[in-house]
Every structure is written in C-alpha cells, then in structure tokens.
Amino acid sequence: MARTSHKWARIMLAGPGAVIVALVVMAGMTRWIPGGAAGIDNLVLPLVLVPLIWAMLFFHACLDRTLSRVAGVALALLLIHGGLVAYNVLDRARPSGETAR
Questions:
Q1: What is the pLDDT, as a whole number, of residue 42?
Q2: Which parts of the chain sit beneath pLDDT 70?
Q3: Residue 54, domain member (yes or no)
Q4: Cβ distance 68 to 9 under 8 Å?
C-alpha cells in the first residue's frame, strides 16, 4: 500500500506539481533578472526558459530516488518565487505616498 501512495505522490510532483512550480518560478524570475536595454529582457527570458524549468522539475521527480528531496526542492522553489511575486504585488498595492514601517 505504501508503494502505491509513493507512486501517486511522484506522479503528482512530476505532473501538475512541476507545471505549477515552473509557472510560479517564471513569475518570480521577473523580479531577479535584470532588464536589458529595451527593458523587457526580464520578461522574455523567463517565458523562454519555462520549458527548461518544467523539464528539470519533471525529470528530477522521475529520476531521484528520494521522494522527500523532490518535494523539498519543489517546495523551496515555490516558496521563494511565490514570495517574490507576493512582495511585488503587495508593494504595488501600497499608495505611492505611504512609506513602509
């Protein structure tokens, strides 16, 4: 029974989990990639790299023997880049005259 639950956990991490984490990483990458001369390089590069990020997460979930390491890497990427996106959204929601405490 335990093997079946590990199998489904790996399928969820390799399938929808990898897609969700790749999209969140793409959104978060716009915060730490510098803009180029045209000012859009930090938007284009994450869009181009999404298939590579997804493939790395997918193959890591399929090939790594330790399921907890797969979940840890995916969760760390999700939390870090999700935090960057949340910080950006909350920073834009603050009125321009109001300062942070």
A1: 81
A2: 1-2, 96-101
A3: yes
A4: no
Of residues 16, 22, 11, the one with CA closest to residue 48: 22
What DSSP letter does each residue of 36-92 carry, written as one string? -SSS-HHHHHHHHHHHHHHHHHHHHHHH-S-HHHHHHHHHHHHHHHHHHHHHHHHHH
Could you give the CA distance from residue 44 to residue 4 in angstroms, rounded to a whole number? Answer: 40
Q: What is the C-alpha to C-alpha distance for residues 61 and 56, in angstroms, rounded to an integer? A: 9
Whether 72 maps to a domain, the answer reads yes
Looking at the structure of the chain, the number of domains it has is 1
Question: How far apart are the C-alpha atoms of 42 and 27, rounded to whole Å?
Answer: 10
Q: Is residue 30 part of a domain?
A: yes
Which residues in 3-15 are b (16+ Cβ under 10 Å) and which e? eeeeeebbeebbe
